[in-house]
Amino acid sequence: MTIRSADGRIVLTVSDTGAGLPTDFDLKAASRQSLGMRMIGSLARQLRGTIVIENGTVGTCATLDIPDPRVTSAA
Fold it and tell me: With CB atoms counted within 10 Å of each terminal CB, which end of the chain scores lower, N or C?
């Protein structure tokens, strides 16, 4: 897991080296079926951010990108 701040954004990345997601994984469909995926999507929307899930040849990487409130509230 990494957290970094740059250009007025906070980026949280979580990855693993497991088997990865199925090749036909559909984030929108999973968000309708899985409580965990709904919660992640809801968190991203509430924080006015985005969630990206990438499935590599080894493992999976999820990135949450949100505005840095320390920067946006100061403007």
Answer: C
- Rg value, the chain, Cα: 14
Bridge partners (DSSP) of residue 14 are 62
Is the pTM of the predicted complex or chain greater than 0.90?
Answer: no
CA distance 55 to 62: 9
Residues 12-37 pLDDT 10s: 999 999 988 888 888 778 878 889 88
